[in-house]
Amino acid sequence: MPKLGMEPIRRDALIKAAIAEIGAQGSLDVTVGRIAKRAGMSSGLAHHYFGSKDAMLLAAMRHLLAVYGSEIRAALQASDGPKARVEAIVRVSFSGSNFRREVVAAWLNFYVMAQHHDAAARLLRVYQARMRANLRHAMRPLAGARAPQMAEAVAAMIDGCYLREALGSGQPDGARAVAQVQAWVEAAMTGVET
Amino acid sequence: MPKLGMEPIRRDALIKAAIAEIGAQGSLDVTVGRIAKRAGMSSGLAHHYFGSKDAMLLAAMRHLLAVYGSEIRAALQASDGPKARVEAIVRVSFSGSNFRREVVAAWLNFYVMAQHHDAAARLLRVYQARMRANLRHAMRPLAGARAPQMAEAVAAMIDGCYLREALGSGQPDGARAVAQVQAWVEAAMTGVET
Amino acid sequence: MPKLGMEPIRRDALIKAAIAEIGAQGSLDVTVGRIAKRAGMSSGLAHHYFGSKDAMLLAAMRHLLAVYGSEIRAALQASDGPKARVEAIVRVSFSGSNFRREVVAAWLNFYVMAQHHDAAARLLRVYQARMRANLRHAMRPLAGARAPQMAEAVAAMIDGCYLREALGSGQPDGARAVAQVQAWVEAAMTGVET
Amino acid sequence: MPKLGMEPIRRDALIKAAIAEIGAQGSLDVTVGRIAKRAGMSSGLAHHYFGSKDAMLLAAMRHLLAVYGSEIRAALQASDGPKARVEAIVRVSFSGSNFRREVVAAWLNFYVMAQHHDAAARLLRVYQARMRANLRHAMRPLAGARAPQMAEAVAAMIDGCYLREALGSGQPDGARAVAQVQAWVEAAMTGVET
DNA sequence: AATGAATGAGGATTCATTCAT
DNA sequence: GATGAATGAATCCTCATTCAT
Lengths: 194, 194, 194, 194
What we know:
Four copies of one chain form a homotetramer. Chain A is mostly helical. Chain A has helices at 6-25, 32-38, 43-50, 53-77, 82-93, 101-116, 118-143, 147-167, 174-193. The longest helix of chain A is centred in the C-terminal third of the chain and has 26 residues, at 118-143.
């Protein structure tokens, strides 16, 4: 039971617990008490480290976005050529840490949070803009002037697939989602190039 | 003097008020009291007619889905040929009663509701299945064996565009959304037919 | 158990209970729950009628000041001549509803409340100003130009006696307090007239 | 390296911080944490030195009374003749360390504390008795048999002036208060001697 | 039908206090 | 001596829900 430098450990545990709890419960109606218990501490301590429930949820959201963002960056750097880059973005979106049931549920709830929480809305807009930019950049060599429009469309499709998984009953099937979006991209490219 | 036939009027007013309140507030954290006040009655009366908050919200959701469904049906009947039918579905999705700011916000919240409310989830799945079926049916003559897959994709895109509008700050722009999805459908078709 | 028009009854009961509770407890650290219980209702109802703890305490303070003010007015109207009017003010200050142990304790606490609650401070200042004006007016015929100064002094003495009673252990002795202040007024008058 | 003799320094700092904090906040609703921070240490340390919040506040009160008492003693020793002694008491009450805004606020709060804290009440009564004795003693040569009564009255007036300052908005004006009480004493004396 | 009264459970938040280091 | 971690009780407030009229 170490007594110093607990802050990062506790904050981390709380963020993870918050995401898990939102995922499990399927809504933002989640109590600080339950999150704290899931993280193995008292609700008082949660407040000690985050100051408020909102701040804690916001931190959780930021965490999700940060993980997503860094995975995207890593995948982009490891990719060669426009096609590979587009595919990387799609793949990361539906894989690993970003596409577990509870995480998808949390995402959906953060979308709702953004509707009445300014900071959350800003956060989300920044990430969406970055995502669009990534897609545009990757698509420029393939689609030329139509890249912006296509980037927009691919982003919409990714979001749409997320939504479907958020509502489906089983574990999300990342491979299928990737295949679907990819197929769509291929088809559209062909259409474009025609 | 007991007013006759008040029930449907009251229920209707409450449902509309619930949707408006959810839209205005941007979350499901909406109180029966406020909904009732918006509908011009006491919270007691709201319970009298719906029995519970959940039942009222569910009725509101059902209402949204019913309106959507009937508009789709009407548009399909008025359309001639596969292309027109696909377009009708897209157009209805982004127009009129279904694409006002507050309604989009309410939709998003009902998605969340479906995560922890069984009846809501069932309702949503039924409607989504019907929508897919409509799309598949309309696309079969155009895409043959790939129709199911394409229907799925168009549905995802519609949902994705909804999501974007739910997070945008201004009034949703239905025309732009229709144009985008249509363009995409065209391109994909071309690709497919190639 | 009447079901209509409860509001004034409940508000009144809560105000009285608040004063009693503050008096009994000797501090503003009084819970809404205890006040409500003393008034025979749930804490929820107290909030229903006052909106907040602060508003309730403020109403209690206002009540004390209003009672005091109206008793002063009544006594002034029943008094003939300057001397009688000064005496009336002194007498009312130390009698009846204003000089019970619990009420004196509540007064003291409202003084504290005025230190960090703007509305409370304003309320208190208005009443103090009115009190000074009453005293000045009554003293003018007796003390001429020195009336303002003497009014100030009498007011200070009244407050001082209140304070002593607030700290004493037994039931406050109004008669003694009146006699003391009156004796002092007499002596000072004589001094002045010399 | 254990610092030697830190205890008195720490205790002193905490007492001063407590008074300042009560003065600044205008109420006894003051947290150990804030007091400790103001004194430049952790809340844990505050407990280490005082054992409890109550004990700390009591020590602060004792400090105020002790300072007041010793200043009175010093002024009395430096005064020659009854009149000078009475004046000394009045002057000290409204000067220097005893009549700063925050200190007056703290006094008021200690009066409240005395209502539900036995030790505080005892403390206050002892000091008030001593004060009365001082005044009586100083007044005996001037007022003879009426000295007790007059001492009582002067004490009440001093308290009353304190109260007024506690509620005023600006910095307390000691000179004015002294002048007022003195004028009053003079007038009463003249009246008495007549 | 309709209201407003009433309850009571539940949740965020604050804080004194304790304890391991 | 000193800190910051940690707890848990206490409190305000909100709200769905019930009920008498």
